[in-house]
Amino acid sequence: MADYSTIPPTAKVQPKPYKVEIDANDISSMKHLLAHSKIGLATYENQQTDRRFGMNRDWLINAKKHWETEYDWRRCEKNINSFPNFTIPVTDDKGSDFTIHFLALFSKKSDAIPLIFLHGWPGSILEFLGMLTVIKKQYPNPEDLPYHIIVPSLPGYAFSSSPPIDRDFKADDMAPVMNALMIALGFGSGYIAQGGDLGSFIARQLGVENEECKAFHLNLYQLPAPSNASSLPISQTEKNGLDRAKAFTETGSAYAREHGTRTATIGLVLSSSPLALLTWIGEKFLEWTDADPTLDEILDSVSLYWLTDTYARCIYPYRTMFGGGAAKPRFAHPSSKPQGYSYFPKEISPTPVSWVKETGNFVHTASHEEGGHFAAMEKPEVLWGDVEGFVKAAWK
Predict the structure, then answer these.
(1) What pairs with residue 362 in β-bridges?
(2) Which residue, of 101, 164, 353, 364, has the fewest CB within 10 Å?
(3) What radius of gyration, in Å, describes the C-alpha atoms of the chain?
(4) Sign of torsion, CA 187 363 201 120?
(5) CA–CA separation, 128 vs 117, rounded Å?
(6) Which of 318, 343, 364, 368 does the annotation list as catalytic?
(7) Which are the contacts of 72, defined by CB distance < 8 A and separation ≥ 6?
(8) In the annotation, is 36 catalytic?
(9) Closest alpha carbon to 257 in 172, 318, 200
(10) pLDDT in tens, 190-220
(11) What is the topology classification, in CATH, of domain 16-394?
(12) How many C-beta atoms lie closer than 10 Å to residue 238's C-beta?
């Protein structure tokens, strides 16, 4: 069997192999809480199958039953463990220490290009498992793999340690931790960042602030219409996407304002019930995708959040974007480095390619007719193809 776990000899810190193995008592506790959780009475709003008022009650009833009686967390765990897992200690630019968990496909080529893939909320490393499978099939021998693939759990997510509780740690503080991770792995001479959702902001900030990040590729690029928008080409699909973005702002973003302005309250509320967490997160997977994920895909993500006590300690980034304050986020500053962009029509806020190109040095863009917010999970072959095309154009 091909071994993708060989640490590059240039690593400055030796990561430790890691195996995901949730305590059986924690799984039993989750199932017990589920069994004793009540689903609210039927209302006009929760009977709507188009989910225009949020979660559909009948879907939740069926999902709860499946989670209690048929769902197998160990299957998900086995899938995670089928890839090399590691943890590594890093220190950020303010002196805070972290233990960062990451998946990796390490190449044995001396000139392999380091790529870091960054998830967001309510995503996780699970988004990238399908893409890692695609890469392994394409490059079945690590001797031929042209890249080092790094997929970290962000600070506060899953198996990475929490942000410090003695200082105000926000979205802007995530990128320095990720840069420290790549330097610790021996990639200080250069790497490329890729991200969607919150990961897109981190990738942009890495490109703006860190010399080590030579280029970045995004599948979410939120920005207002440029001053010359009326003269730029835009397809009908992209016009529909702008309508989708408007609808998200008007009727789909209340969760983000809750995360950003009442972070403590919602964190405590959703840490008290796995069923409540399923309702909150499940809605996002149903609303933000092109084609509905399987129920097990949704339950994998919700179970990961619940079993690692992730939710309350990972929603802090929203305070930067929705918590008020006049300071411009560091990830919003421009960069002249090579950039790439993949347009997926069912993204929550899909920005036309022509608008994005106005903002920087875009060496590779791609427009797709299918796919949504969780591009790596929904269209792993497509996103990986875009990234490879971008790397060939960007890495000199």
Answers:
(1) 339
(2) 164
(3) 20
(4) negative
(5) 8
(6) 318
(7) none
(8) no
(9) 318
(10) 999 999 999 999 999 999 999 999 999 999 9
(11) Rossmann fold (3.40.50)
(12) 18
